[in-house]
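Reopening this one. Same input as before:
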Amino acid sequence: FSCEMKESYEVPMNEEIVLNLSSGVTKAVVEDTSVESFVDHLDVFIFQADADNAKGKRVHYKRYELNNSSSLTLECKRTEFSPEDRFYVYLVANASFSEEELAAQETYYELQHNRQVDDYIHHCGLTSPNAPHYFLMDALATNERGENPVRLNDGVLANSTLLTAELRRAAAKVEITIKAGKNVT
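Same output, byte for byte:
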C-alpha cells in the first residue's frame, strides 16, 4: 500500500497596477466646495526611462473616467513591463484635449509642448456658461518610497504595484488689491 501526496503551492499572480490619487488642499476644499480638486477624467501616460533616467518614448496611454474617485486600477498589467525597466507614470486630470489628440503624443517632450488655455478660469465651478467646469491638474506618480522613475513589475508574482500621485492645479487664482495712492484723482 502506497500513498503519494502532491501539494502545489502556487503563488497567485497579481497583475494590478494601482494608483492612489490625492489633490493638494486648496481654499475651496477648506470651504467645502470640491470643484478645485475634483477629477472628472484622468489621462495616464507611461514613458520608459532611458539610460540617463530621462523620460523616453510613451509605452502606454489610456483615459479613465474617474468622477472624483481617489483610486484607480490601470487596465495595463504588470507583466506587460519588464522587471529590469523603469518608467515615468505621468497623469493629466481634466484636460480639454480629446483622447485622439493625447494618444498621438509619442514622447514626454511632445506632450509638454501642448498648451491648454482656459478662458474665464476664475469662474471655474460656477454656473457661468463660458467657464471650464474643472481645473487642469497634473502629477508624476511615485512608488511607496516617493521615488520616480518606478518599476511597474518587481518580478514577484504575488505583489501588486502601488503608486501614489498628488495632483496639482496647472492654474492659480490670483487676487489683486489695488489701493489708490495720494496722487490719484
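So the earlier flakiness isn't reproducible anymore. For the record, The longest helix spans residues 99-103.
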